[in-house]
Records
---
Amino acid sequence: MKFEYAPAPESTAIVDIQSEYNLFIDGKFVPSKGGKRFETINPANEKVLSRVTQATSADVDRAVKAATEAHRKTWSKLTGAQRGKYLFRIARILQERAREFAVLESMDNGKPIRETRDTDIPLAAAHFFYHAGWADKLDYAGLGKNPKPHGVVGQIIPWNFPMLMLAWKVAPALATGNTVVLKPAETTPLTALLFAEVCQQADLPKGVVNILTGDGSTGAAIVNHPGINKIAFTGSTEVGKIIAKSVASSKKALTLELGGKGANIIFEDAPIDETVEGIINGIFFNQGHVCCAGSRLLVQENIKDELLEKLKRRMSLIRVGDPLDKNTDLGAINSQAQLMKIRELAESGDAEGAQRWSPQCELPEKGFWFPPTFFTGVSQAHRIAREEIFGPVLSVITFRTPSEAIEKANNTPYGLSAGIWTDKGSRILWSAQQLKAGVIWANTFNKFDPASPFGGYKESGWGREGGRHGLSAYLKGDFS
Amino acid sequence: MLLTDSSESSIKSFLKNLSPVDQVGADARAAMLATRSIKTSSKLWAIDTAISMIDLTTLEGADTPGKVTALCTKAVRPDPSDNSVPHVGAVCVYNDMVKVAREHLDNNGGKEIPVAAVSTAFPSGRASLDVKKQDTEDAIASGATEIDMVIDRGAFLSGNLEKVFTEIVCIKEICGDRAHLKVILETGELVTYDNVRRASFLAMAAGADFIKTSTGKVSPAATAPVVLVMLEAVRDYYAMTGKKIGVKPAGGIRTTKDAIKQLVLVNETAGPDWLDPKLFRIGASALLNDLLMQRMKMKSGQYSGRNYVTLD
């Protein structure tokens, strides 16, 4: 018998999207000085959601001034416990308005409501709760006595987890006593603008958080502004390198969280059904728009056929479609540009002789879509084995021995994440020691917690976010 | 046949070669599938399908002919006010009530509903093989066409797999083509998912037609991850042998939501072929009334309350 799941769309009545948005500077929404508007669309149906403002360098200047004043006059005068109070308040409001954030995030980003509801927004709130607890305990964070904030931090976040990345940036910055100028990604500004409302609702002192929408030029103006003491960036390695160069001649502190080409290593004794789930989660979570995605599947050659059979079966169960349907597993690609990039790289896989496989699945006509896909016959020399695709595309590579697995896993300019699947505890520990990656998961993948530091080796970035290690990025002090 | 012979070493090496189960991962998969949102037409379909899969059960020391006949009446026509409700999958009783149930069903329009008997010194399984055989023979002679036997958990946990295997083979021989054999693993006593997977394969290799989670006398019973692991086992066994073995969760499934979650597990694990009373049953009693109340609500748009369904 066939069990069809009837459409189960989450209602959009809970969100109230304005037709136009101004910039959030000094606690108020204010019009830009000379900036034009640009559209933000729903990538699942290409409908325009709103028109937001392209912040100019004059706007950046205003925002930095507001943040500097706020830091000097109010935020630096508060005790840690008082700062913590605001963070707790924000965390609670995020929980109260969780559904509103989840629906809005799904609409603006294209990711499934199941993920925004169960992962993005709960984790964002958790980051505020976690850092609220640190605010009055910084003397005990192991960073020396009485560590000091940098002052004004410029934060530039990506489109793949708009609200969660905002939380990763804003929560530690505020907990440590910094004030913030934040730029959300061009294609996903709406939850950041809703967060601005939350700041007002929480009575956060004006100027402590400033939110400027815009494209790369706004980002560049933030990076190059002399009034900013620290830059935190999450995004592509390409842009990260430009930022590192710009900041190199200044005294600005810098953390970068960049791309990755994570290896998910499957040993022959792995618990196979859970491993298949982990592979699915590793590469199809958030349409593969995950910097730490397990985009290279390194499988021991003697179990390759059995594993791929099971993977194919499981992939054919993935429900692709309306992101707001509660049963959707794979949503829309975030933008036309990203879709073109995924297509181009997948085509390079075909051209270089790898074999492509996707399950039968109907893609909606409107919007940006790419089916869940894997390539077999991939070698280390293929572009799809080396370059970050940032989409639902998995490259399958085989190995014969544990040392060969490690060698191939580390043979990449990146070093953000890796997964190890085996029933053998000793092999997990041995592999984890050899792997050059900032995050290593054993018998699971894509699990996040505010207490766990996240960051990369090599071209995957500098510094850590989250946990005690993440605090140090926002503090300067007597670290001796 | 997956085993070269039924010796201890052959059984052990077969079970050792099975892929292990990671508990955290299995729990996570079951939890994810529990978030499926089943609404409107698919909910109505799921309710009727679940009703047709229920093994309507009473297994109490206080069971009387009166109680059992009432249950049988309910099995034939679960909702006296609505003839479109399907009959349940089977009636499940203790051995001595099989005859009462069979006769009442036959005389009241329930000829096609099988009677299942719990057998082999249910629920503990602590009796000699001869007694277990006699117990089973007795149930079939009284008219049971489905036998729900328990495995010897003590033997399984002490590593005496040959004993567990041989007992199932013996009971299967008695069943022959007269009765379907459901093998109860009592997963609440096996505890680990590795044990559940091994016991599932052991039972299937020994000739089970169905593997069943629990007696209903031990908690936890049919948890979602345990059912998931068993559904994966029947799916893998089918891939190995071409034989489809049924699954029966029993114990702890009380609400429509629980039942629909079970159907989602079936659909996305073993696959749609198993969405059939021949291959999936739910051992329950209170569940039926909740399904009926939800069904009335779907049809009329209003909740009616427990006095609009029969309490038997």
---
Amino acid sequence: MNEPRHTILNLGPTHPATHGIFQNVLTLDGEKIISTEQTIGYIHRAFEKIAERRPYYQITPLTDRLNYCSSPINNIGWHLTVEKLLGIKATKRVDYMRIIIMELARITDHLICNSVIGVDSGAMTGFIYVFQEREKVYEIYEELCGARLTTNLGRIGGFERDFSLSVINKIRKFLDHLPKVLKEFEKLLMRNRIFMDRTINVGPISAERAMNYGFTGPNLRAAGIDYDVRVTCPYCSYDDFDFQIPIGTSGDTYDRFCVRQGEIWQSLKLIRNAIDNLPEGKHFMDVPEFYLPPKQDVYNNMEALIWHFKIIMGEVDIPSGEVYHSVEGGNGELGFYLVSDGGRTPYRLHFRRPCFIYYQALPEMIKGGVLSDAILTMSSMNVIAGELDA
Amino acid sequence: MDNKTIIGKVQERFNENVLSVDETSDMLTLTVDRTILHDLIFFLKEDANLQFNFLTTLFGIHYPEMPQPLGVIYHLHNLIQNKRIRIKTFVSIGDPTVKTLTDLFSAANWMERETYDFFGILFEGHPNLKRILNVDYLDYFPMRKEYPLEDSTREDKDDRFFGR
């Protein structure tokens, strides 16, 4: 008897189908996958170490670069963590503004992931449709903070500027237009025979295994567990709103696609509710020790100049203590564990990066499948290299 | 389920090995001896009332001044009753071993590799304990406090003026 002959295939580090820089060494028997070995760390930037030398405001740009498909969620998550340490309670207006921005970010994150599943199964058209819509969200970010991808949006204690009339109009226009595009997108894929054949029962994972692997976010919900940080541990007044958590049953690629699609509709509902009921008031809380004053005040007002200087130089006392705060990021529970010893920088900051934790389940999910299915499974898991490597 | 029940159950079983209980921070925090760590987490996971069935995260921490400077912190979550708990255990630099959790949670695999990679904590029984984010030939553990972020020979910056 001859030994079975296996092929070793390097998928990545830079392969167009991996959508990021990470390597999978596949052992193949024909087209069937026998085993997988993963190598990650190609864009590791030591954020946790860097954060130990940076004042709190300078850490916000680091969080941008975790899951860069939904940077505002990371930014706001970080600000919420610091606010939790400081014991600042946000006003309703700030909360609602944050919800609007975070849900917009979630929509873009899901749009990218779902349309890329389409691309990987051979349907390029949907991708082009929804990227046009993503562009509109980026224009909203641009109007709010001047940046598009790595937004560095918001402040400890609120936002740098209020929603202008133009921002509100852009959001409303987006809310009116996206449903049409989304319906068209769903028509292209949701009940498409080819797409269904390619995704149903591809890369499935049971609820029990998914939990054991620490899955969170849409991937866990696709397996049938309704864990959503927005509902179980509400932050930012999410408990004021009525929305549903879409869940799947089999945890396969099709379910993950459908759960994300369902979440986009829920996010749209949330944004509409939040913008219709946006309370009056200021776009920041009264915490001059931590909230960076507006630039024109810094030039013309003595108090503001002093606070600006103190905040920038890290001269403001931060209480010592430890907190863990998590938000529902684009692909799962994004947690920040912060230890402060009272100094100008964190003593230790740890990011709980959802995709670092669930990506290790890939070998189990694609074992026994064919190579082309492995690509789809990987893209449906929404693995973002920036978050994977931190 | 309130903190009292959890503390009671844990102390009844592991009595003097639970070194301290802290309810003042954002979640119940237990500091335990490393010898019972695995048993404790197994107990928390499998007990019919406690049901801490989800490992949220685990990571290292370094306090150079303490007698046992290296720590591992675990966050567990009871998804059924929505209760979180934090477990801490500390080890010395000379013998930084903790039992692995990979037999209880598959998720612990990479988290423990990351903790080893950055803090040099050895997880006993881990199936594949090697570096994960850093290069394989790195000969130190970069998240320990003795490794400065910036080049220590630099002279153009005076830290005194930056409050460090």
